[in-house]
Design a protein that fits this description.
With 144 residues, the chain is mainly β. It is 11% helix and 62% strand. The chain has a two-stranded antiparallel sheet. Strands 2-7 form a two-stranded antiparallel ribbon.
């Protein structure tokens, strides 16, 4: 017989001789009481919203008086393609535009030409911080 078997046998014999275990009742020695807890939590959230608007084409306009256009009024267009970090973008821009001259040299005239090409047209960055504070008070009252 090994030492382990001897120890197990001795434990069984002593357990049988000792008898059953008896539970002792636990009786609280108070008649009433209360418990109060106070918890405060503060949470701070910081957000950054970055919104970008892109033009994929062009906007071209001409207005005026006392001027004359030579040739076609529709501008010529060209397409460009670019690939950056695996993202391919294609946009349309101007290659040629009409030529304008003053109808009567020396006379009054007005001429406005406006062109907005492809690319980033507007960027809005909003940064905001939200702080949330929570307070919890708990009271427990007990009697016997």
């Amino acid at each position: 017989m090994t030492r382990l078997q001897e120890a197990i046998g001795l434990g069984l014999i002593l357990g049988a001789l000792h008898g059953a275990a008896q539970a002792v009742p636990v009786v609280p020695n108070f008649t009433q009481g209360s418990m109060t807890s106070h918890t405060e939590t503060t949470q701070k959230i910081t957000e950054t919203i970055n919104s970008m608007d892109y033009n994929t084409g062009y906007q071209y306009s001409v207005t005026g008086s006392g001027i004359t256009a030579s040739g076609n009024l529709s501008p010529g267009t060209s397409t460009s393609t670019s690939t950056i970090e695996g993202v391919t973008s294609t946009w349309t821009g101007l290659s040629t535009k009409p030529t304008f001259t003053q109808t009567t040299p020396g006379a009054a005239f007005q001429f406005t030409e406006s062109y907005q090409g492809p690319g980033l047209s507007n960027q809005t960055i909003i940064q905001r911080t939200t702080e949330i504070q929570s307070v919890t008070d708990t009271t427990s009252i007990f009697t016997q």
